[in-house]
Structures are given as structure tokens and as C-alpha cells.
Amino acid sequence: MTSHGAPRPRTPVPQPSGASEIFQVLRDGRPRTRAELAQITGLARSTVAARVDILMGLGLVSPIGGAASTGGRPPSLFALNPSARVVIGADLGATHAVVILTDLAGEELARERQDISIADGPDAVLGWLVSAIGRLLRSAARGARDLAAIGIGLPGPVEHDTGRPINPPIMPGWDRFDVPGLVQASFDVPVLVDNDVNIMALGEQSSNWPDVGDLMFIKVATGIGAGIISGGVLQRGAQGTAGDLGHVRVAAGGEAPCRCGNTGCLEAVASGPALAAALGGPARPGLTGSQDVIDLVRSGDATALQAIRQAGRDIGDVVAMCVNLVNPSVVVIGGSLAQAGEHLLAGIREVVYTRSLPLATEHLRIVPSVSGQSAGVAGAAVLAISHVLSPEAIDAASASAGE
Predict the structure, then answer these.
(1) Is residue 145 one of the residues assigned to a domain?
(2) 143 and 24: one domain?
């Protein structure tokens, strides 16, 4: 209110053009005519034409020739122009990083991989990432102005709204660090940050299960977590901690201490380090993690085979509860321990199909990850693309272009 009690004049807010409605139809890459777009959306042809012009002005849609003519000039076809902009997907792991540059259809244009230590801290790791982004842009002959967004996956809990890691156990110096702020100092674009298992779920779904709207991705490695896609939407929960399966108490856990401070957690008995500790001892010194366990399994070691099968059963206890709760149609098992293959999967399936409701498992598939180590970086790119091509972003861009 002003000093005289009259309301202050408001700054005019650009009104959405409605172009996003047309664009969401064209996002699948299939060419369509203005008449087809009008029929699909129920909009007048003049309205469709105006909105297509806006999208063409933004470079997001382009004409690609003509459709078959029924007499007279053939109608023009329009489709997504995937090369209009590019995005970055970055998967920053505990000991390595993978970064890719893709177009708006997710087609990979350039890639870089580097051994890193996440424990070196955000300045060192993100400094390398910023340099890598510059190298990828140059290698693809694209400029910084072509970059539309950056998606980043981190190996720890992330407050998705701010992009800040929260008490990450293997990331000293990262707690509440402003990850987007540091990256945006070099590239002034939206920076989306999420935990590694969420981006793996996005990558696995987009690459291998695009028609599945209810999917769980279970990562079994140093920790155990789930990325949950329900109704086609990634479910993060109120604070971004949805899917933290590793710290659910299980019957086999007993009083086994967990790094979270509690006892009897799934992670304390079924993670890579837990299995390595259980299999180690004087006869097998030096076992520390998932790869050591996998090597024993592949060698046919009977004790290791029994341990990995039991780990699958313990994981299955928690997955069965999730199946009853969220009713996915596909459960994908990934992470380093998934390299144990059918030995781990058999234990999970044994319990899930026994303990879950018959209706929930009638069409349920429990399968190994197809994307493997590429799931995370692909999902980080999906995170960025989804933001750039969202209805809100399209309407904001079209409104700004019309100012």
C-alpha cells in the first residue's frame, strides 16, 4: 500500500502465449500439419498458426517439408527442432565423473569421463565440471549461448528445490553447498541437481521403458536406494529423501551397526561394503567393497554365492513392501552389485513374489538395468531437457519473446 492507502501499480506480467500446448504435442518428434495440430488440440487453425510461428521464432520447431497433397499446395509439416539448443548431463560419482552434451532429443553429441574423488570438495570437482562443459561445447562446435540447461547427479541426499546436498555421508565439504550458484557463475542457465539414484531412474526409463509410467530403480552399491517414478512423475517427497531404502530396518539386520547411527538397517547387511566385511577375514584379507564381492561371485565361490543370494532376499523384503505401497509395473535393479546378475535378482524375486499382494505382482517385472553405468548421465540430461521443454519454460520463453 502507498502512504495514502491506494494500492501500488503493479508491473505488467507477460501473459503466456499458449504455445506450450502446441509444443507438447510436437515434443515426440513426429511431424504434423497445422490442421492436425488443430484437430488434436481443439484450437482454431488461426490460433495454431500463430502459436507455431512463435515456436518457430524460438527455434524450437521447424518446417520439414510437405505432407501429401489432396489438391493444391501440399500442407507444411512441423516438428521439434532438436538441434535448436543443447544441454549438459553430469553424473558425479564417488570416484569418477561422466559428462555428456546432448541435443533436445537426448542425442549424445560429446562425452568426457574422468577419475575424480568427490571427497576433494565442491570447488575442485565443480571446477573440473565447468572446464569439461567448455571443452564439450567446443568439441561440438556449439557456443555457450546454445546451452539451455545443466543437469547434475550427486552421490548423496539433495534438496532438489535448491540443488544443495544435505549431510551427504561420503562428500566432506559439500553439506548445503550452493552447487547451482558455482556452476552458474560460468554458465548462466538453469542448473538442476538431484541424487544419483533419481537420475538413474530417469535415465533407465527414458532409454528403455519410455511407455512405463510406474517404475522403481533400485541401486545396490555402497548404499542402497530407490528412484520412484509413479504416474510418469519422479517422486522426490517433501524434502527429497523419498526412496532411501538402505535405512529401513530388516529382520536379518539384527544389531548390525549402520553408518546412519542406527542398527539393523538394510544397508548394514546387504550393501557392497557389508558383504565384503562379512566375506572377509583372515582367509580373505583386503575385501572392502562391491567389486571384491563381484569377483568372488564370478569365481564361483560358494560362500559368496550364498551371501549375494541372501542379500537379494534381504533387499526383497523391503522391495516387497514398496511393491505393495506404490504398485510399480517394473522394478529395475542396478548399481555395482547388480553385476552379480541372476544370483542377486533370484533372491529379490523369491521374496517379492512371495510377500507382495498377488494383484500387485500379476504383471510385475523385476529386471536388471539395461543402461548400466550410462543410466545416471543419461538421466541427468533428461532432467535438463525436461526443464527446458516444460510447459512453464516454453510459455515463459514465448512470453519474453513477445515483449
Answers:
(1) yes
(2) no
